[in-house]
Design brief:
This protein is mostly helical. Helices cover 68% and strands 0% of the residues.
Length: 426
């Protein structure tokens, strides 16, 4: 049986079909799959009608109220409200002018807002990059007057005897954070093997960087029992179960008006916040060199996102439990969801010639964070890398390079030569 879209297209003229095909090809070349737009089935009509004038009126009314009733003698409060107003205008303009991203649930405008926040965060990072380290630390007091003071060093590797008491003492709020974090990363990566590779790689990076960041100095059982085998496993397991559920789920999007019962209408409204469809990521890094290089690049970006937050909070003197750290992690999760989808489209679709805006923006954000870390780290980490760390990662780099040469250069040539040397049958 053909679907309604196919039947509708069969009634079009040849010229109209060619126009549709050309538009779909153009969207793919821009880094957006045709499915993203052709499968849109809005059922909440009110939220899919243009509301630009209404939003403008509400925005200006809010500005008028704040301008008239906020205490004009408080310069700090006025500055904060001014920045909030500036960001609000930018977000509204972005919702009106930005293109739709890869997701349409709960609403395409929501993901345009996410992209707008990513741009705002990148603009803040660029401004921070051109400040001195001391000025950057004092800038944190703008968000919280309690910040701007040096943090006490905390190490988790003082007593490493494997006892029940030590294991119990090692369980704190960050154990839950580990599990929730890996649940989120699993929703982004959507591949069991890759999640475990990155989980183990990050623990090796913690070993390698413990001489710079004291909180990376953990006991061996903290690394491998509490982190990898408990917290990370739980987050990856639940995340993959979540992915499997949406993979096998049948998506039938009925309009709210078509559902007779109140319970069904409420259920359908809640379903608006679940994916419209689900794409399984099959990375297949050994298929071709582009896949392998893209897989390595994706892994590096994930590790960069992980490490940046530890270095930034250390250099800017922000405690790990501070809301600023939680806000950065939450925003990065929202940035990464559409970015990973666009990256995978660019990675797996030969017709896709350009990365999507979400992906490009997130890469720029992570690299800008790295530039800030490199600048502010001067004079902070005097101790050189241990020799065994340098040797280990040199061996890892050599193995990766050797594998790529063998898999994509030598092995195909040897297979071709052996195939050409086979005797022909009569």
């Amino acid at each position: 049986m053909s679907d309604p879209q196919t039947e509708a297209r069969e009634g079009l003229s040849l010229q109209q079909r060619r126009a549709l095909a050309a538009a779909a090809h153009a969207r793919t070349a821009r880094g957006v799959s045709p499915v993203f737009h052709e499968s849109i089935d809005p059922t909440l009509e009110f939220f899919y009608h243009p509301r630009t004038l209404s939003v403008l009126v509400v925005l200006l009314a809010g500005f008028l109220y704040i301008a008239l009733y906020v205490d004009p003698s408080n310069d700090m409060l006025n500055t904060k409200w001014g920045l909030v107003a500036l960001c609000s205008v930018f977000v509204v303009v972005s919702v009106v002018l930005f293109r739709d991203g890869p997701f349409i649930r709960p609403h395409p405008a929501f993901w345009r807002v996410v992209l707008a926040f990513n741009v705002l965060y990148e603009m803040f990072l660029v401004f921070l990059l051109f400040q001195s380290k001391q000025t950057g630390r004092q800038m944190m007091r703008f968000f919280d007057p309690a910040l701007g003071a040096e943090l006490p060093e905390r190490s988790y590797g003082d007593n490493c005897a494997l006892t029940v008491e030590n294991l119990r003492d090692g369980i704190d709020i960050f154990v839950l954070a580990h599990s929730v974090g890996w649940f989120g990363k699993t929703l982004i990566i959507r591949n069991h093997t890759m999640c475990w590779i990155l989980s183990i790689t990050f623990e090796l990076l913690e070993y390698s960087l413990a001489h710079q960041l004291p909180n990376f100095n953990e006991c061996w059982w903290d690394h491998w029992i509490l982190d990898v085998l408990t917290c990370n496993w739980l987050g990856i397991y639940v995340g993959m179960k979540w992915c499997e559920y949406f993979k096998v789920k049948t998506y039938t999007w009925h309009g709210i008006r078509e559902i007779p019962s109140i319970k069904g209408k409420i259920s359908r409204a809640g379903a608006q916040f679940t994916p419209h469809s689900w794409t399984v990521y099959e990375w297949a890094p050994t298929r071709r060199f582009k896949n392998f290089a893209g897989f390595i690049m994706f892994a590096v970006l994930i590790m960069l996102a992980e490490l940046n937050v530890f270095y930034l909070k250390s250099l800017l003197w922000v405690p790990p439990e501070h809301p600023l750290v939680i806000a950065r992690l939450s925003l990065l999760f929202l940035f990464a969801l559409p970015s990973a989808r666009e990256y995978y489209e660019y990675y797996s679709n030969p017709r896709c010639k350009r990365m999507g805006a979400h992906c490009w923006m997130l890469i720029a954000t992570l690299l800008t964070e790295l530039l800030i870390i490199v600048k502010f780290a001067r004079g902070e980490f005097a101790e050189p890398f241990p020799q065994h760390v340098v040797i280990f990662w040199s061996v890892v780099a050599a193995l990766i390079a050797g594998f790529s040469v063998w898999q994509f250069v030598l092995s195909p040539r040897l297979s071709g030569a052996s195939g050409n040397g086979k005797p022909k049958s009569d």
